[in-house]
C-alpha cells in the first residue's frame, strides 16, 4: 500500500529541509527524501551547502585567514610568533566536525518537528507519486497531496579539464587537500573560484586564476569590483582575465603529479603548470532523472524547473525551490522560497522579495551587495546619487588593522530611497544586511543618516556613506556642496 502524505519534499538542502520543517510546523504530514547518505546508508541532511559548500568552505576560509593574519598581521599589534605552521589534516578535520554537527542538527530538527525522512533518490511520477530508490537499489513509491522539488545543484564540468578529484578537482575536491600545494590553478574567477583560491593562497600556494571573461566580477558594482581585484592581487592571487582554457595534460607520478593547462589570451596560446587545478566555472540544477516524462512538470533549456513567482509549476500542487529554479543559486534564497512554498500550501499569501536578495563573496575582505548597482541604474535610465565611505578612516577598522575597502550607498536622486548597497571590507556581509533591512522598509538615505550608530563600530561606515549621499558626511571630505 502506497503511503500518503500532505507534503513530499525531494531534497534536504537549504530549500528542502527548511520547507519540510515549515510544512510540519503548519500541521502538514511531511516526509523528506534525501539521496545523500553515510557509511551506514542513512540519510545525511543539509545538501551541498552544509556538506560540501557554504559551511565547509567558510570553515577553511576562517582557518586560513587566521593563519595568514598570524603570519603577516600580528606584528603590527606587537605580537611575535616563532615557528608558525599549518596542520592541514587538522584543519580539514575541524571542518568535517563542523559539518557533522550541523547536519546532525538538521536531523534533530526533523525529529523535533515530526518530519519523517527517507534515504533515497526521489523521482516525481504522474499524479504526484514519488519513486524512491535507496542506496541498495531498492525502490518504493510514496504519494503526496503536494510535492516540493528541491534537488539542488552540482558543479559544472568542462571538456578541456576533466575532473579526477585528485589532480583536477571541482569545488568539493578543493575542500579535501591533505597538504598545501605549491602551485594551484583555478578556472573561473567567480564566487567559488575566488573563495577557494583565497584559502590556498593564504596557506602558501602560488595561485593563478584563469577567467575567460574580460571583466572582473561583471555582476558586481564596478567600483567595488575594481577595488576587490586590487586587494586580491595584493594578497597574491594572480588573476588572468580573458584567458580561455583549451586543454589540460597530466604529468608526473604519485606526489609529483602535475597538470599542464593550455589557454589562450590576448597574447596568443599559453601554457602553465600546476600541482592542483580547481574547476570552478559554475553550477547547474540537478534535474536529470528527477522527473518522469509524463509527470507534467516542465524543464527549460538550461535544466531549470519552470515555476512562477511563487515557485509553483504548472501542475497543481507541485512546487520547486532553491537551485533547481530560476534566480541566483544562494542558500538563503532557497530557504526563503522553501518557507514561501510551505506557507502557500497552508493557504497563506507569503511572497519572496526577489529585489532584495543579498549576495556575498567570503574572501577577506568580504564583498557584499544588495539591490541595484550603478551600471544597472545607468542602463535603466534611473537618476541616482551616490555616497561612499572608506574603511581606511573608520576608527574600529583602524583599531583592528582591517582597513581595506569601502561602503557605497546608492539612492534615487529625487525620492532619496535607497536603491542599493555595495560593500567590500571587514564584515561586509553583516553590514549589507543592515541596509537590506532598511530597504525592505523603503528607507531613504536620509533615514539611515538620521539613525544613531554606536561608536566605534564598522557600522559607522554605513552611516557615513548614507550621509555622503546628501553631501554631508562628517568624517570624510564631501564631493559636493552640503545642504
UniProtKB/TrEMBL annotation:
Residue ranges of every copy of the FAD/NAD(P)-binding domain listed in the record: 5-338
Record text on cofactor binding: Binds 1 FAD per subunit.
E.C. code: 1.8.1.4
Catalytic activity line of the entry: N(6)-[(R)-dihydrolipoyl]-L-lysyl-[protein] + NAD(+) = N(6)-[(R)-lipoyl]-L-lysyl-[protein] + NADH + H(+)
Entries under Pfam families matching the protein: Pyr_redox_2, Pyr_redox_dim
CC annotations in GO: cytoplasm
One Gene Ontology term from the biological process aspect of the record: 2-oxoglutarate metabolic process
Listed cofactors: FAD
Catalytic residues (UniProt): 455
Family in the record: Belongs to the class-I pyridine nucleotide-disulfide oxidoreductase family.
Subunit structure: Homodimer.
Name this polypeptide is given: Dihydrolipoyl dehydrogenase
Organism: Pseudohongiella acticola
Amino acid at each position: 500500500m502506497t503511503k500518503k502524505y500532505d507534503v513530499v519534499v525531494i531534497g534536504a538542502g537549504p530549500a528542502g529541509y527548511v520547507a519540510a520543517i515549515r510544512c510540519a510546523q503548519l500541521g502538514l504530514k511531511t516526509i523528506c527524501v534525501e539521496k545523500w547518505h553515510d557509511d551506514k546508508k542513512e540519510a545525511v541532511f543539509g545538501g551541498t551547502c552544509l556538506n560540501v559548500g557554504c559551511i565547509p568552505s567558510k570553515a577553511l576560509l576562517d582557518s586560513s585567514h587566521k593563519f595568514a593574519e598570524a603570519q603577516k598581521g600580528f606584528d603590527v599589534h606587537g605580537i611575535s610568533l616563532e615557528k608558525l605552521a599549518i596542520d592541514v589534516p587538522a584543519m580539514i578535520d575541524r571542518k568535517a566536525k563542523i559539518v557533522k554537527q550541523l547536519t546532525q542538527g538538521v536531523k534533530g530538527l526533523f525529529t523535533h518537528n515530526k518530519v519523517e525522512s527517507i534515504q533515497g533518490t526521489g523521482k516525481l511520477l504522474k499524479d504526484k507519486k514519488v519513486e524512491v530508490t535507496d542506496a541498495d537499489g531498492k525502490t518504493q513509491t510514496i504519494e503526496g497531496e503536494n510535492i516540493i522539488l528541491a534537488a539542488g545543484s552540482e558543479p559544472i564540468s568542462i571538456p578541456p579539464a576533466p575532473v579526477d578529484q585528485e589532480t583536477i578537482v571541482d569545488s568539493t575536491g578543493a575542500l579535501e587537500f591533505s597538504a598545501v600545494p605549491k602551485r594551484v590553478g583555478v578556472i573561473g574567477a567567480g564566487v567559488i573560484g575566488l573563495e577557494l583560491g583565497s584559502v590556498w593562497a593564504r596557506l602558501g600556494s602560488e595561485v593563478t586564476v584563469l577567467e575567460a571573461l574580460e571583466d572582473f566580477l561583471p555582476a558586481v558594482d564596478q567600483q567595488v569590483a575594481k577595488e576587490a581585484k586590487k586587494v586580491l592581487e595584493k594578497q597574491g592571487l594572480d588573476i588572468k582575465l580573458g584567458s580561455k582554457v583549451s586543454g589540460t595534460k597530466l604529468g608526473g607520478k604519485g606526489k609529483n603529479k602535475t597538470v599542464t593547462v593550455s589557454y589562450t589570451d590576448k597574447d596568443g596560446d599559453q601554457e602553465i603548470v600546476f600541482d592542483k587545478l580547481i574547476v570552478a566555472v559554475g553550477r547547474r540544477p540537478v534535474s536529470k532523472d528527477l522527473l518522469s516524462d509524463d509527470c507534467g512538470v516542465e524543464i527549460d533549456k538550461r535544466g531549470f524547473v519552470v515555476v512562477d513567482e511563487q515557485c509553483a509549476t504548472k501542475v497543481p500542487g507541485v512546487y520547486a525551490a532553491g537551485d533547481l529554479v530560476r534566480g541566483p543559486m544562494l542558500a538563503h534564497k532557497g530557504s526563503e522560497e522553501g518557507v514561501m512554498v510551505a506557507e502557500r500550501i497552508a493557504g497563506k499569501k507569503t511572497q519572496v522579495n526577489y529585489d532584495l536578495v543579498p549576495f556575498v563573496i567570503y574572501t577577506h575582505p568580504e564583498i557584499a551587495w544588495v539591490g541595484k548597482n550603478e551600471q544597472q541604474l545607468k542602463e535603466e535610465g534611473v537618476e541616482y546619487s551616490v555616497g561612499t565611505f572608506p574603511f581606511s578612516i573608520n576608527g574600529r577598522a583602524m583599531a583592528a588593522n582591517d582597513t581595506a575597502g569601502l561602503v557605497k550607498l546608492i539612492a534615487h536622486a529625487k525620492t532619496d530611497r535607497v536603491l542599493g548597497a555595495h560593500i567590500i571590507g571587514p564584515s561586509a556581509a553583516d553590514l549589507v544586511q543592515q541596509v537590506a533591512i532598511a530597504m525592505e522598509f523603503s528607507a531613504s538615505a536620509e533615514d539611515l543618516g538620521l539613525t544613531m550608530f554606536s561608536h566605534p563600530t564598522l557600522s559607522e561606515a554605513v552611516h557615513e556613506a548614507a550621509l555622503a549621499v546628501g553631501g554631508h558626511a562628517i568624517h570624510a571630505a564631501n564631493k559636493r556642496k552640503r545642504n
